[in-house]
Amino acid sequence: METAVEIDDLERKIRDLLSRRNAILLAHNYQRPEVQDAADLTGDSLGLSIEAAATQAEVIVFSGVHFMAESSAILSPQKTVLIPRPDAGCPMADMITRESALDFKSRYPDAPLVTYINSTADVKAVTDICCTSANSVSVVNSLDARTVLMAPDRNLAHYTARFSKKMMHWYDGFCPIHERLTPDEVKAVKSKHPDAFFIAHPECRPSVVDLADKVASTSGMLDFVKKSPHKEFIIGTEMGIIHPLKKANPDKEFIPAAPHMVCANMKLTTLQDVYDCLLEMKNVVTVAPDIRQAAKASLDRMVAVKRTD
Ligand code: SF4
Q1: Ligand 1 pocket check for 179: Cβ under 6 Å
Q2: Are 117 and 71 in contact (CB under 8 A)?
């Protein structure tokens, strides 16, 4: 763990290298606070990749997990994309492979496959359309099919099915961090904070979603809390989100739904890792051209969907 002086020093050295390399630093909402503070842009994975693609930067440093940097490489093929920690993976994204996605599809030949953005480029490439946790209902309802498949997150699919008019089948993947949160833990924290408003991420299990006052993606949480008259919130997602929530709402209080809501992969990246990767221009993330083209088509089809949720 870096000291405050080391953090200041590293941040200054990172800013200097960023400007010399014409680079931009992105940090996901679940990253360590000091990494978020050093970043040019913070947010959710798709929003960051879309924003970074629109900049003049030649280099993108993505502080997040591997599929996020891949999404940036898919959307910005002319830029160099670096990941400070190439070993930062996502256990949920790793629960499905290109082969298992094709096998899932083959069982329902007439049903389009909707794939959550938390997946590898290989899986996006064999997908009919992507979705995020913010637009899954709109994406599913936009499809001209009675039956729709969703992968890899069974919890997001279950949540989407509640609001969709389609018959849905889903893959049996999940995020271990969100899955771990139990209804009993939520009830216990609610009883300690009876006035607090409980916001859950749709990656939580259905029995936890049932207890939520609001269900939202990370960017949805940030928008909602800013506008909400409530002063106290129980946060049902990875704890990193509490940092930007506090920064944007210093007068409000945020209570983690459980102390174990920490994604070890998201916490791997330190400022030293960011500095080292920029200095050496190492850990370049690339996607093969044919996979990139097919994965981008799935992302483009998602972006074209008119939001209704
Ligand atoms: S919080 Fe869950 S979905 Fe996000 S990177 Fe960690 S394991 Fe993957």
Answers
A1: no
A2: yes
